[in-house]
Amino acid sequence: MSTLAIFSATFCNAEAVIEACRERTGHRLVTDDALVADAARLSGLSEKKIENAFAAKASVFNPFTHEKERAVAYLRLALADLLDADNLIVSGFASLLIPPDITHVLRVCLVADAKFRVETVRQQKKMSEKDAAALIRKHTEQAATWVKAAKGDEDPWQSELYDMVVPMDKTAPEQAAELIVQHLGADVVQPTTRSRQAVADFQLAARAGEVLAKAGHNVSTHARDGKVTITINKHVLMLARLEEELKALVEKVPDVKGVETRVGENFYQTDIYRKYDFQMPSKVLLVDDEREFVQTLSERLIMRDMGSAVAYDGESALNMVAEEEPEVMILDLKMPGIDGIEVLRKVKATRPDIEVIILTGHGSEADKKVCMELGAFAYLHKPVDIDVLSDTLKQANEKVQQRKLATGGNA
Fold first, then answer.
1. What are the chain's domains?
2. Whole-angstrom Cα distance, residue 66 to residue 217?
3. Considering the chain, what is the average pLDDT of its residues?
């Protein structure tokens, strides 16, 4: 029997429908959690970083690290490896990664109106109507962001994306499952030679995508009959050189019969193509209340292929440490509110793996002694030579990467 792919709005009784379908078909259930675990194993990334691919908000460091795109590449690879088998139920966000030309997949969307979902949340979570509505909006934003990334579409519930859209506010889970299984047996979704070839092409495109992601590239891949097409969606000044590099990498993938490159619809926008250099600092948090100085510093680091984000006070810096997982921090001492020494103390208490470089124009020898005792990596004075700062950043980043290797940590 064919494969079933189910994507659902939250609080639409999806779990009950999926379980009823599984009982009726005997199909193997493949969840997002299972694919995340497989993708983490294949990539060496942590499961948390793979899960972040589904998040509505990308990390501020993502333009430099491509972590979200790398996670999606490995989710595609994990999913592609499974599709040789029939009799699967693929549920959740990852179900939308299955290409439409694999026609022996029945694509189902479970939806319900806002009133039904709000009431379901209120009953299950014991929330107020206002809080329930806010939770649903958050989940809908996440779904919309994921559909945009996976399908290039703004509306996660658009009927053109699915073979069936089931209104769960009007359909009991058992009825929905019965209807889905009935359509799963239709001739139009049974495996054919062409749809089997589409699976092989998806697997080939996924392997090509893995090779490119591993080399630090952020492009999309598609395959047909063994020929791989690479799409470049960001502007690059030396396009011919990039195309040669991409082709050289993919031509080495087994079973590739040909490679071509093209530019996508976003190529002519203002974004600049950046290859991720795994050896360069890419998650640097700059903390300084002198806005013009820190913005200029950020721009100068970016010109040197170092990825950075900015915080203008200690409290914002601590919030970003909690949310964004920087690896190196450049920290001023004299700031309003929480000063640099207190930020350093809190960071080292909660995230000792972050290497902190003090960069100050007002520090004393006593301050330096305190900072180094608290675990600062280096203590520099303003104005600082950019080459000295760059070298210090690279040394701090090297220490971070060596620690990861020594502890088996994930990149």
1. 3-188 (3.40.50.300), 193-263 (3.30.1340.30), 284-407 (3.40.50.2300)
2. 8
3. 93
